[in-house]
Amino acid sequence: MTYPFHCSNVGYHCSLKMNETELDKTVANLHSSYQHAATPNDLYAVIDNIDAAIAHIDNDLETYTQLKQPKFQQDITNIELMRTTRLSNTISHSSELTNLFQIANDLGHSLTFKIKSLDQEIGNVNKTLAYVKNVQLLKNNIDQASYAIEHNNWELAAQCIHTITSLPPDLTNGKFASVVVPSKEIPELPQATISKWIDDLTLVFKDKFNTAAEAKDVEQLTKYFQLFPLIGQEEIGLNCYSKFICEIIKETSRSLISQSTSGKPGIFAEVTIQLFESISMMLSQHGPLIKRYYSEYPNALTYVITKIQREIDVQIGIIADTFYDTRRLDKLFQDIGLYNFPRLEITDEEDTVVPIDDDLIPIRQVGDIISEMASIFHHWSLYCKFITAKYFPTPQPPLKLSELIVKSNFTRKINDKLLPAFEILYKFYFRRSLEKAITIEELPSLEPYLKSSPSATSPDQVPCSSVIEDLTLILNTTLRNMIESGMPTSVKTFINESFRVVQIDLINGFFIKRLNDNAPRYNQMLSLITPEMTAAAGVVASPGAGTPRSSTPEPSSMGFLKGASSALGSVVAGSVGNTVNNPKLLNFIIYLNTVAMAQGYFSKVFSNVKVESNFPFGKDKEKIELILSNDFLEPFTNITNKIISESLLNLYNQSIKSKLISLVNDFLVETNETNYIIHSTSDLNDSSNLLKFTNNWSGLIKPYFQTLHNSLLFPKLLRLLVVNLSNLLEKKLMIVLKKFKINEFGSIKLERDLSYLINQVCEDNYQLREKFVRITQIVLLVGMDDDEYYESNQPVVGGGGADDEDSMGINWVLTPSERNQIRKYRI
Asked: Following CA atoms 711, 713, 716, 717 in sequence, which dihedral angle do they give, to the nearest 10 degrees?
């Protein structure tokens, strides 16, 4: 297979000597000979022809090479000669250029040196010229300042001195200026002259500023205030300004205090507001002026505020002391110390009447004093926030209260005198308000809520005691005062003390006592009022001949049954053995609603508190929010939830349980038949039992639906009823099935009846439907045929067994032994 390769080589080499046609012919002939070779001799002949062709080509190639080699060698020699010649020329040109660059470099160095020398000479000339000009400027301004001082042109004098002090110090004190500047009129050295003039002008400006301050001449005040920085006396100017502001604050305070002699409620809060508004307005208006003319003095505004803060402390302290004395707080504290809260400390029966002298310590007066003092604290807090945020801001959040405020005299007075007084007042006010609310308590009538109506709904505003409404208003007002005061320690103390009062006096002394006193007796029920009962109540309510009305007032806790409502309760109670709508049961419902409403009201009060805007410093906001939540709201919610749960359980056990048992017994009637309930297909459509259950369930649940709190009470009661109903149904059904067993028709009707019952009880509440899972599975088991039951006990593919895994998609809550036992009840 190498021959075609050689043929191709032959074609390549032949191209050097032969033309393309001859080469193609030779290759074609060789290729044809190769294809037509039939014997080895033919192949040998082809090979010989190829070798001959190659030899001929090699001979031609050698001849061609010998002919062309001399000319090729001559060309190479010519090229080498040309390269040598041109390289020599290039090197020669490069040397010439190097010489030229060297000459240029030397010339450049020479020029650069001369230019630098010239620049230095120019710089020296300019320095000398500037020095001469400055000396001339110094001399001219000294002459102008002397002339201005002689003619009382203070603005020109200050401007000249400002120009002089702006010159380099070494020029003013230099020998040249000391020789050139002094003259016959001003023989002193420049520095001594300027220092003397500055001292003189400082005294003049101070005198002029004070004179303008006494005359309240704003134009002259501004004029001389802006001259102090021109002579380098910024601090003296700021001192004069601070003294002027202090005088204004003092006069404003005196004027405001003189207006407070009327003693009307809230007057001192108004005085405090006006004082701090006046101070803030002055600082805001004068701040740009200070920044403009005293920009070179570091922290000029901070310096002024530090100076005037002492006067502010004095004046607000005088207002606070005047308030303290005018309101006779020491006498009020003595009276508070003698008051022992007789209504809250009652240990006798509920109807005991304790006379309370409201004039001894008027609760409204105490409330006004608390609001007034809280307003003083609030506006002091606003002032502190304004000063700190605008003039003493911290480089990074959170904002930190300025040390100037922390160490101020009024802050010390607040901590030592005013806050303790504040705490005494609001502790008394909160507890006394609770006592007053209990004393004037009113209970609503439940009659409007117990009316029988097909469209009756759960009330938006459930009936509750007036005590919780009054106390919520007091808590809201007092807590808002505490928060707006901006005093974290005061808020902490108030929350602790108010919760102690709530826990002892409201929860233990009022809620629990009222619920226990009105706890339902066994078999007392709540029932809707029908028109027939209302008509009967009207007959009883009409006094007969010779039957006088009782003139004895009813106790406050029983006062909701008045007139026809009281008579209605008497008729109903008398007709059924004092078991329906008993007055104490009605009271119990109202007080249970009161506990739930207290939880809702207090939650709203605390959620509406604006903490962040009143506590911007440090981590006060987070601390106050934790105090409100952890020290009051959460403990109160936990305690009231426990009271609600226990009260609902008591209500169920005493009033509802027996009725629920009767309802279950009526639903699952025991018969003497061998099968459960029915024994033929004709009984499948019998719905009398279901209608009876619907009426009984509605009569049981609707009175509570129409009277109990719709989010905190009724859902919990309904859940309790459903759980117990499910348990009672399961026990009763197991007894009936064990006694009678059940057939196919019975299981069908049982499934229908139970489905109807669950729909009536739970409606769309799927959480309640889950309570019936056990009994639903019992009914499912007794309704299965043998094949379905067998399949339900087979394990799911890939599962671990029927006991551990779902079967037929059923998540069994019944154990295998329970399922086998229940299955035996099917016949």
From this structure: -130
Confidence of residue 505 (pLDDT cuts 50, 70, 90): very high
CA nearest 797: which of 784, 806, 789?
806
Residue 68 has a CB neighbour count (10 Å cut-off) of 10
Could you write out the DSSP letters of every residue in 199-252?
A: HHHHHHHHHHHHHHHHHT-HHHHHHHHTTGGGGT-HHHHHHHHHHHHHHHHHHH
- Other beta carbons within 10 angstroms of residue 388's beta carbon come to 21
Q: Give the pLDDT band (50/70/90) at residue 512.
A: very high
Distance of CA 809 to the CA centre of its chain: 46
Contacts of 513 (CB under 8 A, 6+ apart): 350
CA distance 161 to 163: 5
Identity (one letter) of the amino acid at 774? R
Both tokens of 450, joined, read 């117990």
3-state secondary structure 295-324: CCCCCHHHHHHHHHHHHHHHHHHHHHHHHH
506: its two tokens: 């409201």
Cα–Cα distance, 722 to 727 (Å, whole number):
9
Q: d(Cα 289, Cα 608) in Å, to the nearest integer?
A: 42
Q: Band of the pLDDT at 3, cuts 50, 70, 90? A: very low
The answer to whether the bond into 398 is cis (omega within 30° of 0) is yes
Own/partner long-range contacts of 507-510 (Cβ < 8 Å, ≥24 apart):
507/636, 507/639, 507/640, 507/643, 509/344, 510/438, 510/467
Place of tokens 């006694």: 739
Q: Could you tell me how far CA 431 lies from the centroid of its own chain?
A: 32
Cα dist from 259 to 276, 282, 620, whole Å: 16, 22, 36
Q: Summarize the confidence of residues 661-686 as an average pLDDT.
A: 63
Residue 351 has pLDDT above 90, yes or no: no
| Residue among 241, 242, 265, 269 at smallest CA distance from 256 | 269
Residue 429 has pLDDT above 90, yes or no: yes
Question: Which DSSP string corresponds to 615-661?
Answer: --BTTHHHHHHHHHIIIIIHHHHHHHHHHHHHHHHHHIIIIIHHHHH
Pick from 427, 557, 553: nearest CA to 494: 427
Q: What is the pLDDT of residues 94-109, one digit of tens each?
A: 888 888 888 888 888 8
Q: Shortest CA distance to 391 belongs to which of 379, 380, 381, 403?
A: 403
How far apart CA 129 and CA 108 sit, in angstroms, is: 31
CB 597 within 8 A of CB 640: no
Is residue 343 within 8 A of residue 435, CB to CB? The reply is yes
Averaged confidence pLDDT in the chain = 82
pLDDT score, position 560: 27
Instruction: Return d(Cα 337, Cα 129) in angstroms, integer.
Output: 88
> Are 245 and 256 a contacting pair, CB within 8 Å?
no
Helix (H, G, I), strand (E, B) or coil at 17: helix
- Choose the most confident range, by mean pLDDT, from 168-177, 368-377, 554-563: 368-377
Residue 276 one-letter amino acid: F
Q: Angle CA(84)–CA(89)–CA(91) in degrees, nearest 5?
A: 95
CB contact at 8 A, 161 and 201: yes
Angle (CA) 700-703-707 rounded to 5° is 145
Q: E strands, 589-681, where?
A: none
3-class secondary structure per residue, 371-414? HHHHHHHHHHHHHHHHHHHHHCCCCCCCECCCHHHHCCHHHHHH
Other residues' Cβ atoms within 10 Å of the Cβ of residue 576: 14
Most confident option among 118-132, 564-578, 696-710: 696-710
CB 652 within 8 A of CB 713: no
Rounded to a whole number of angstroms, the distance between the first and last alpha carbons of the chain is 99
User: CA–CA separation, 475 vs 462, rounded Å?
Assistant: 21
Cα-Cα-Cα-Cα torsion 319, 322, 327, 331, nearest 10 degrees, comes to 130
| The predicted structure's pLDDT at residue 448 | 87
Give the integer Cα–Cα distance in Å for 256 and 84.
113
